[in-house]
Amino acid sequence: MVYNCTIEKDGDMLIARFPDMPNIQTCGFTQEEVLAMAREALEGCLESDISRGLPVPFPKYKEGYPVSVSSHIAVALQLRELRGEQSQTDIARRLGLSYQAYQRLENPRKANPTIKTLERIARVYGRELSVSI
How many CB atoms lie within 10 A of CB 122? Predict the structure, then answer.
């Protein structure tokens, strides 16, 4: 999963902003530094928002500079999106997991699903797991 940011020069600093995530702004002295800071800020914000159950927009902005999101965050966000209006309890029951075990899957700070677990989740949603490395 990739969010794109804009980079603007402000004096000696470069400022990175994410049009899809307007609450994120960071800076650096070089393009390499500002992109590293942008990834750290993006991932921190996504982890926090997902963990607190806040709505998180999927990336739409396609211009600017791409910033990849770590897999554990992308999986948590995608699971939450797939679940939609269904409760975590309902999905856990369909997967044969405890509520707490499923809840951890949607928490990027605690999730560490196996490929087999992801395959089971895909089947519950009538999807096919697609993994690219």
Answer: 14
SS3 content of the chain, % helix, strand, coil (to 5): 45, 20, 35
Number of Cβ within a 10 Å radius of residue 127: 11
What are 44-85's pLDDT values in tens digits?
999 999 888 888 999 999 999 999 999 889 989 989 888 889
Could you give the CA distance from residue 97 to residue 42 in angstroms, rounded to a whole number? 30
Average pLDDT over residues 83-91: 92
Tell me how far CA of residue 17 lies from CA of 4, 6, 32, 69, in angstroms. 9, 5, 15, 15
Half-sphere exposure of 97 (CA within 13 A, CB side): 19
Give the Cα separation of 25 and 17 in Å (integer): 5
Q: Output 85-91 pairs: Cβ under 8 A, ≥24 positions apart.
A: 91/124
Give the other-Cβ count within 10 Å of 42's Cβ: 24
